[in-house]
């Protein structure tokens, strides 16, 4: 069971205004959490003492929420609290954990949760920085750095495709069979945890954070990610994470598909030679020697697959800022992203 919170303010104490705003709030909660009506067990509403013209629950019934239990209460009155406000707590039969709940605060009620709200453009959505780009451009390094400086979580979506690839390699699932991959994803128990040491990736109870970094897993991640059924499920999981908390998220389709309303979108790139050289150094540091020309070939092959796939190919979103990091070190790129963010938030 999870409990999703929401609140909205009303301009006048009239039946019409109360029902209209409650309906807007419930619709947004349903949409942002991809809720089916049958999943909702009950909703508790409160209204501040200045709202007396109608019960908010009436709006829920008219939205077709006929089977769940509804109650309306008066909100406890606290001096100088936000007036004309309707609050809701939606109880949902889901095993996804409380962190997956996307809470919704609209109109003046956004002031109640400044940690979730993020300026006019976001309209109650949490802060989101989307970083896309080709393999080895420095997305994870930069996303991690930016998240640390902002004190928010970093979500590495590539790690989710890598975890699925690892699971399928171990289970002998055909990497070309989209349907089988989607089924395997349902059974895989892929889950992300965000702690003080960053993101950790699990297959059920098994921590695979380090194992998924293998080169063969990375190459197979790009193969499993071609399939639309797989992508659809992954995107849903990613949107849930970003729905309820501020994030820096990196991947291939974050600005174009996962977070189309992100506060800031960056398309980070570098030449294929520079990217291969970075991988080369990274591998050398781990005691693995690989020929540079083969790494360039592999990276270009991965770019081709990511950019030419039919579903959600890698491309720069129209409103993304292009950052070429071929001649910048990682710290310089982090600074650029932070100053771009300051500009969009100003
Ligand atoms: N701007 C940069 N300059 C030099 N090296 C970088 C830069 N950004 C990242 N790196 C290094 O390049 C390698 C690949 O970076 P990574 O963040 O894993 O890329 P991506 O997530 O885009 O695949 C890492 O070894 C990282 O330390
Ligand atoms: N949002 C995402 C993230 C990764 N991916 C795929 O997953 C693969 C591994 O992602 P990654 O970000 O870990 O890859 P690297 O760039 O770190 O090598 C990529 O090559 C993409 O094909 C994707 O399709 N969409």
UniProtKB/TrEMBL annotation:
Catalytic activity: CMP + ATP = CDP + ADP; chorismate = prephenate; dCMP + ATP = dCDP + ADP
Protein name as catalogued: Cytidylate kinase
Coiled-coil segments: 278-305
Pfam families per record: CM_1, Cytidylate_kin
Annotated ATP binding sites: 133-141
GO CC list: cytoplasm
Species whose genome carries this gene: Anaerotalea alkaliphila
Gene3D superfamilies: P-loop containing nucleotide triphosphate hydrolases, RutC-like
InterPro entries attached to this UniProt entry: Chorismate_mutase_AroH (IPR008243), Cytidylate_kin (IPR003136), Cytidylate_kinase_dom (IPR011994), P-loop_NTPase (IPR027417), RutC-like_sf (IPR035959)
GO MF entries: ATP binding; chorismate mutase activity; dCMP kinase activity
Family named by the database record: Belongs to the cytidylate kinase family. Type 1 subfamily.
Highest taxon above the source species: Bacteria
Annotated keywords: Amino-acid biosynthesis, Aromatic amino acid biosynthesis, ATP-binding, Coiled coil, Cytoplasm, Isomerase, Kinase, Nucleotide-binding, Transferase
EC number(s) per entry: 2.7.4.25
Primary enzyme class: transferase
GO BP field: amino acid biosynthetic process; aromatic amino acid family biosynthetic process; chorismate metabolic process; pyrimidine nucleotide metabolic process
Residue span(s) of domain Cytidylate kinase: 129-342
Subcellular location per the Swiss-Prot or TrEMBL entry: Cytoplasm
């Amino acid at each position: 069971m999870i409990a999703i919170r929401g609140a909205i303010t009303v301009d006048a104490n009239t039946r019409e205004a109360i029902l209209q705003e409650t309906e807007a709030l419930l619709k947004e909660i349903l949409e942002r959490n991809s809720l089916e009506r049958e999943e909702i067990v009950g909703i508790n509403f409160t209204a501040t003492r200045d709202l007396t013209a109608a019960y908010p629950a009436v709006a829920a019934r008219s939205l077709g929420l006929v089977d769940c239990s509804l109650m309306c209460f008066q909100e406890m009155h606290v001096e100088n609290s936000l007036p004309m406000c309707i609050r809701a707590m939606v109880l949902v039969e889901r095993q996804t954990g409380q962190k997956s709940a996307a809470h919704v605060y609209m109109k003046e009620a956004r002031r109640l949760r400044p940690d979730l709200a993020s300026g006019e453009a976001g309209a109650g959505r949490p802060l989101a920085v989307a970083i896309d780009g080709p393999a080895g451009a420095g997305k994870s390094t930069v996303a991690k750095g930016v998240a640390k400086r902002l004190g928010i979580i970093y979500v590495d979506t590539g790690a989710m495709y890598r975890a699925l690839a690892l699971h399928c390699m171990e289970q002998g699932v055909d990497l070309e069979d989209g349907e089988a991959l989607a089924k395997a994803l349902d059974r895989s128990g892929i889950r992300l945890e965000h702690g003080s040491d960053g993101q950790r990736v699990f297959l059920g109870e098994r921590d695979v954070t380090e194992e998924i970094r293998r080169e063969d897993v990375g190459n197979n991640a790009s193969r499993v990610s071609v399939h639309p059924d797989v992508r659809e499920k992954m995107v849903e999981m990613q949107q849930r994470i970003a729905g309820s908390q501020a994030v820096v998220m990196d991947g291939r389709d974050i600005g174009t598909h996962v977070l189309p309303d992100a506060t800031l979108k960056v398309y980070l790139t570098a030449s294929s030679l520079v990217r291969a050289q970075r991988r080369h150094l990274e591998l050398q540091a781990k005691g693995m020697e690989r020929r540079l020309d083969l790494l360039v070939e592999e990276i270009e092959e991965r770019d081709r697959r990511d950019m030419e796939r039919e579903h959600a190919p890698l491309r720069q979103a129209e409103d993304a800022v292009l950052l070429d990091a071929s001649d910048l070190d990682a710290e310089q790129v982090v600074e650029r992203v932070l100053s771009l963010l300051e500009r969009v938030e100003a």
